[in-house]
Each structure stands twice: as structure tokens, then as C-alpha cells.
Amino acid sequence: MNTYHSLENWLSWVDKLSSEDYVVIDHFLRPDLHLQVREFFLSRLALFKQAGIGALDQNSIDTTIRGDQTFWLDNVRDQEINGFWDLVDEMIHVFNRYCFLSLSGYEFHLANYPPGGHYAKHLDQFNDRNNRMISVVLYLNEGWQPGDGGELKLFHDNEQSSIVTPTAGKCVLFKSATMPHQVLPAQKERNSLTGWLLYQPTALGQFLG
């Protein structure tokens, strides 16, 4: 298969993810793909809805916990970002071949945090649904500066934490079931494409927080 990133890069990232439960990759999106995704994002902003927390009948909106608005993606409908879907297929191929994860699907959404928006500390996993394996966050924020906030804070077992600045083209991969994290308050609009690589996916999509 044609690949977007070299196997050498993928194996380096996979090793770090395996040993540290997360990896931060600068310039993960090339400028052309970043532009494709960002233009699609901006074209869909009017369709975004306030994000909830919890799954299915437990889903509720609480802006004191989560303040973003989202638009759920569909790989058949949203062909304007076909370069991104090709990259997701490449991700799944790498993880299945070299990590033996048996990934068989994914779900992704666009997320917009208004000024002041945040997301309290949480895991990307539900008590009654444990098929999210790898969380994927791609940042679309051009010209992000110190003081703009909106950092991703990752919590480690040793009670330490890591801070990730949401700059354009950056990707964060982490283990969904073991990496607590939060989004710190943004001082200006903060945009991302976020989702999960799944084991035995179910058609729950937009109902998930």
C-alpha cells in the first residue's frame, strides 16, 4: 500500500506509544492535508452541536465539564477529506500488523472550543463499552501562541503530567483506556479533529461524548 509516513517513523511512534502510553508527533499532517481538513472544518461549522458526555441513554450536556461543539464525520459522506481517511486506514494497518491490536473500525468528529471552553479530566472509555483502543487528536489551530491556552494535559501513573500545545498539524496518539486527560481552558477558538481506533466497533457514533 502507498504510505503517507515512512515505516521507520511509524515504528518509532509505535514504540513510544507502547512504552509510554502516548506519543506526540509534530508536523503529522503535511500542509496540503492540513489545509484540506481545515477548509472542510470551516465549511461545516454551522452544523456543529453542543457536545455531551456519556453514551446513549446516559448522554447529557454539562458545559461545566465539557464545553466544545462537535460535528461527527462519516467516511462515505465526507469525501472532501479523503486524504485523511487514507491516513486512518494506514494507521489501522500499522497498528494491526505491528501491535496485533485487531482494530476493525473507527469514529471521528470535529471539535470546536469557544473562548473559555474546556474539558474536565476523563478517560476516553465507557464502563459498559470498552472498544476504544487508541485515541487520535489532530490540531487545526494556525498561529497558536503561548497564553492562548487550550493545552491537552495527560496524566501519568507516577502522578506527573505532560502538557501538549494544540498547534497546527500536530497529532497526539494515546491509549484510550489508560490515559486520563483534560483540555485546559482555551483563550480563543480551539479546533481539532478527534476520534478513536476501535476494536469490534458498534454503530454508536454521534451519541458518544
Determine the fraction of residues in helical runs and give it as a percent range. Answer: 10-25%
Structural class: alpha+beta
- Whole-number radius of gyration? 16 Å
Let me know the average pLDDT: 90
**Beta strand count:** 11
Structural write-up:
- With 209 residues, this protein is of the alpha+beta class.
- It has helices at residues 7-20, 31-43, 82-99, and strands at 22-25, 49-50, 69-72, 105-113, 119-122, 132-139, 152-155, 161-164, 171-175, 181-183, 190-198.
- The protein has a 7-stranded antiparallel β-sheet, with helices on one face. The chain has a 4-stranded antiparallel β-sheet with strand order 5-10-7-8, with no helix packed on it.
- Residues 203-209 have low confidence and may be disordered.
Which properties best describe this structure?
single chain, 4-stranded antiparallel sheet, disordered C terminus, 209 residues, globular
Secondary-structure map:
Layout: H1 7-20, E1 22-25, H2 31-43, E2 49-50, E3 69-72, H3 82-99, E4 105-113, E5 119-122, E6 132-139, E7 152-155, E8 161-164, E9 171-175, E10 181-183, E11 190-198
Antiparallel strand pairs: 1-9, 2-3, 3-4, 4-11, 5-10, 6-9, 6-11, 7-8, 7-10
Helix pairs in contact: 1-3
Short description:
With 209 residues, the protein is α+β, with helices and mostly antiparallel strands. Helix content is 22%, strand content 27%. Residues 203-209 have low confidence and may be disordered.
